[in-house]
Amino acid sequence: MGNVLKDKSFRFALRIVRLARFLSSNRKEYVLNKQLLRSGTSIGALISEAEFAQSKSDFVHKLSIALKEANETRYWLKLLHCGDYLTEKMYKSLLPDIDELIKLLVSSIKTAKSNIKANM
Fold it and tell me: How far is residue 93 CA from its own chain's centroid?
């Protein structure tokens, strides 16, 4: 796993933290915000955990959970946008970042799985 995934997930988590602050103070939205904050920040945390995985399969497992969290984050962003909590500009600013994280995670998982199979 390269630093690209780790760095991008950290920067994305930071954007989510700032968005959560905005949503709670400016939009008075707390319930969806909490879901977004949890899933959006856990992506990077799981990627960091994967660095010290106990095995290659544990590594894949942690990245797979990070992928699920990324997909969930995309859902909350869409819901917040459609619910008029996020402007079109805000939504379109975050969407490429989460889509890129999803693509990077899918690619990393596929590579790790093929490496596991090659070593069997």
Answer: 15
Cβ–Cβ contacts within 10 Å for residue 86, how many? 24
H helix intervals, 27-87: 31-51, 56-82
Tokens 């999803």, residue located? 102
Decide: 6 and 108 in contact? Cβ < 8 Å.
no
Q: Each residue of 43-97: pLDDT tens digit?
A: 999 999 999 999 999 999 999 999 999 999 999 999 999 999 999 999 999 999 9
Q: What is the pTM of this model?
A: 0.94
DSSP-derived 3-state class of residue 36: helix
Q: Is pLDDT above 70 for 1?
A: no
Kindly give, in sequence order, each residue whose CB lies less than 8 Å from that of residue 41, ignoring residues fewer than 6 positions away: 13, 16, 17
DSSP notation for 74-114: HHHHHHHHHTTSS-HHHHHHHHHHHHHHHHHHHHHHHHHHH
